[in-house]
Amino acid sequence: MNPKQAIQLALIPFILTGCLSNNDPSSPPPLPPGDGSETELVGDRQTLYRATLRRTSFGIPHIEADDFSSLGYAYGYAQAEDNLCLLAEDTLTIRGLRSRYLGPEGPYSIPSNGASTTNLNADFFWRTTLTDEAIAPFKSNSDPEVLEASKGYVDGFNRYLSEVRDGQHPGRHEACRDKEWLFALEEQDMYRRYLRLAVLASSSVFVDGIATAQPPETTDTTLPTAEDLLSALEGEGSGSLPFPFSAELPIGSNMYGLSAEASRTGESILFGNPHFPWEKTERLYLAHLKVGGETEIMGAALYGLPAVLIGFNEHFAWSHTVSTAYRFTFYELTLNPADPTQYLYEGEYVDMESSDITIEVLEEDGTVGERTRTLYRSKYGPMLTFEAAGVPVLNWSSLKAYTLRDANAENDRLLNQFFRWNQADSFEEFVDLHASVLGVPWVNTVATGPGQQAYYGDVTVVPNVPDDKATVCATALSPVFDQLAPGLPVLDGSRADCEWDSDPDAPAAGIFGPANLPTLRRDDWVHNCNDSYWVTNPEEPLTGFAAIIGDEETARTLRTRKCMQQVQDRLDGTDGLAGSLGFDLANLQSVVLNSSLLSEELARQDVLDAYCPSGTLLSSSGQPVDISAACEVLRQWDGTHNLDSVGGHIWREFWRGIDPLPVTSPDKWLTPFDPNDPVNTPANLNVASPLIQAAFADGVQRIQDSPIALDAAVRDIQLSGIHDTPIPIFGGEGFEGSFTIASSRPNDLSDGRYDVNYGNSYIQTVTWRENGTPKAEGFVTYSQSTDPASPYFKDMTQAYSEKQWIAFPYTEEAIRSDPNLVEYRLVELARD
Question: Does residue 383 form part of some domain?
Fold first, then answer.
């Protein structure tokens, strides 16, 4: 840095210096270049932030800072460098400005929970949900480390944004760099984002229903019975309601905690694998964070959170899966027939709160107009309406209306949970913090550590509604949800005794305390693959918990059965892998990416034997389908969805037709579910059932009607749906019993391929060396950056496609020896 540069930098409020760009010509150059001497030039000016940001291969950031403010600063800078446009669009969303800049009729979706609506409805929803009043507790009750890192993140993001606006980083972020909606972040945006993520599995499922809920314009005193609604839903062919009601969740995960008795090495192992969208801000971002001499953690977080949500260090490793517990309850309100905005509570009519919300919209002619709605809230939460298959299940009439109380909208401990975990000094402290903070919003946790047991807990924020309260406070609609969403209460909102209970060991009113939530510690193994806590380990079922948390003694999904079966087969040696029994990192990695299918193992031979000799089957429409060529392909199929496998797509389309059949249906399995054998039952597909026969014919016909050949290999038809060059992706769907997930949503074969946009996302396998340091390998399957001009846009996806496991550099030696190391030194100074 020459004196002229130093003088120029002294006149601006921040300095970014960079050095050490090694060997990788595609790496982003450090900006501006320097020699590391900036500390001699700052004089008496206050240093706001000082951090070192190093990137190893695949763009993995390693951040070292003296304090959490500087950590957040470097983290915000790195995420902006990788994902500026995606984060900028999310800022539009959480501020309720999509209609102003993208038009009111444009589409808005939340892939992770299935919500889909217009920009206008999204704006009304987020304006009424992410109010200053709503986010205030998230800020005021957060630990100092949260506040500091959040402020630093804003300034680091804005630092990178200022460089883009100044014309730096040419060629990068072309999708947004010249857009008028490329806004600087504000601190309030961070807390809006935190609350948005908190309600991902609750309020934001009902974007449309909350954004459009209005009192009736005319008097309507008719109330449908539960029988009427169930009959109407059945007539519409609705097998399930949207998340979190559906059997196959829009988001999911697999995870194992393997302790000494399940380990070939005698050392514990942790496997974590969220199944999240490959698009939008529910992507996961890998980083290695170090603050001072005491806090060090590596792992992944959802975009915009300056912490590690799934990760590891020398003391412990953990992962999460989406829990079956409900985070909200509906309340049925009895209305004043003369005023549908008043409801009965303890014998008196109470006014709903109303808010007039005005949204600016970009009109078709380019002018800016306005739309105004009045939205309502009860004492419990927002008013809403809800339809399933066109049937108004929750309707606002003159007599009844429905409102929602969301426990995670009140969960101001969420950020404290993860920041305290990131600073924990031991496995035992990690487990203790799980219960004492009780801020995990909607995910199960599995953890272990060097020489430690395997731990599982669904210690999450759950409305305190014991089964007896759900029964005593049931409403006329309760039988509908008993069928459509077992365990989800619809409570009588007119009675104080129907409000949520409180436990003495809970950190907040209205939620279950740790004593009433399921946990398990084992010397061998625990798992979760998105079914309930019940058979976390089939040798020690967990029972006796409230139905709102999860079901017990019910059939597990094929994916969960596959999860358990894989461990059992490895421990008894029946999986065919070489060497001694138990897991090590290498054979675990082989198992979790093997792309085999439980449905194929259970039923392929029976299907071939029953259907193929005839050569023809009738479809569900009664038309004959020639299945002979499909049968020949399926006979030769290796039973997996690996890249060179041929024929598995025929099986997938067949099983797609079977999946909606209830597991208890005699048309599906001849051997029924046995709660004493949840891994192996139900079994024996009922190939004699006309429904199963028609499903096979329909699946074959679906392929025949598409551009996909019956004998196509996976590598030719299953490709990343988010990259600009073809990258083949192995794996299958959860509904067909695949553990290795690659999914196309929505499923459309008209382009001759499965475009993968969901599934395996962040993957970590972690164990510990003899010296106590973690050994971790894995992937960010869609890569670190969403910018096509970034060198980190598809590099990790290409490695994943080839199953080339990536070492996560944790030690200083591993970082320094990386051949593609790039280093930035970031300093920001206060103005004079």
Answer: yes
**Residues 96-101: what's their mean pLDDT?**
98
Q: What pLDDT does 119 receive?
A: 98
Mean per-residue pLDDT for 139-147?
98
**Do 171 and 220 belong to one domain?**
no
On average, the pLDDT of the chain sits at: 92
Question: Same domain, yes or no, for 144 and 212?
Answer: no
Q: Which two tokens stand for residue 51?
A: 């951090």
Are the CB atoms for 254 and 310 separated by under 8 Å? Answer: no
- Which uninterrupted H or E stretch holds 354? strand 353-362
Q: Is the pLDDT of residue 679 over 80?
A: yes
Peptide bond into 682 cis (omega under 30): yes
- H-only helix segments in 96-201: 98-102, 119-129, 132-140, 144-165, 187-198
Question: For residue range 716-742, what is the model confidence (pLDDT) as tens digits?
Answer: 999 999 999 999 999 999 999 999 999
- Tell whether the model's pLDDT for residue 761 goes beyond 60: yes
Q: 639: exposed, middle or buried (C-beta count within 10 Å: 0-12, 13-18, 19+)?
A: middle
DSSP secondary structure string, 655-699? HHHHTTS-TT-TTTEEE---TT-TTT-SEEE-TTSHHHHHHHHHH
Domain of residue 221, CATH code:
2.30.120.10
Lowest mean pLDDT among 45-49, 391-395, 593-597: 45-49
Residue 18 structure tokens: 């960079």
Which uninterrupted H or E stretch holds 415? helix 414-423
Model pLDDT for residues 350-386, shown as the tens digit of each residue: 999 999 999 999 999 999 999 999 999 999 999 999 9
Question: What is the set of active-site residues?
Answer: 253
CATH code for the domain of 19: 1.10.439.10
Q: How far is CA 296 from the centre of its chain?
A: 24
> 823 near 52, Cβ under 8 Å?
yes
Domain span holding position 706: 599-710
Residue 404 to residue 381: CA distance in whole angstroms = 5
Q: Three-state DSSP class for 620?
A: coil
Give me the amino acid identity at 356: D
Query: Which residue, 393, 45, 37, is CA-closest to 226?
Result: 393
CATH number at residue 634: 1.10.1400.10
| pLDDT, tens only, 304-323 | 999 999 999 999 999 999 99
- If 0-12 CB within 10 Å is exposed, 13-18 middle and 19+ buried, where does residue 261 land? middle
Round to whole Å and give the CA distance between 324 and 42: 54
Is the same domain home to 180 and 223? no
Claim to verify: residue 42 and residue 155 sit in the same structural domain? yes
| Residue 238 shares a structural domain with residue 373 | yes
Residue 798 above 80 pLDDT? yes
The distance in angstroms from the start CA to the end CA of the chain is: 21
**Alpha carbon 597 to chain centroid, angstroms:** 23
Predicted local confidence at residue 823, as pLDDT: 96
What φ, ψ does residue 343 adopt, rounded to 5°? -135, 155
- Cβ-contact 51, 63 below 8 angstroms: yes
- Do 117 and 236 sit in the same domain of this protein? no
Q: DSSP label at 28?
A: P
Classify burial at 606, counting beta carbons within 10 Å of its beta carbon; exposed 0-12, middle 13-18, buried 19 or more: middle
Residues 627-655 pLDDT 10s: 999 999 999 999 999 999 999 999 999 99
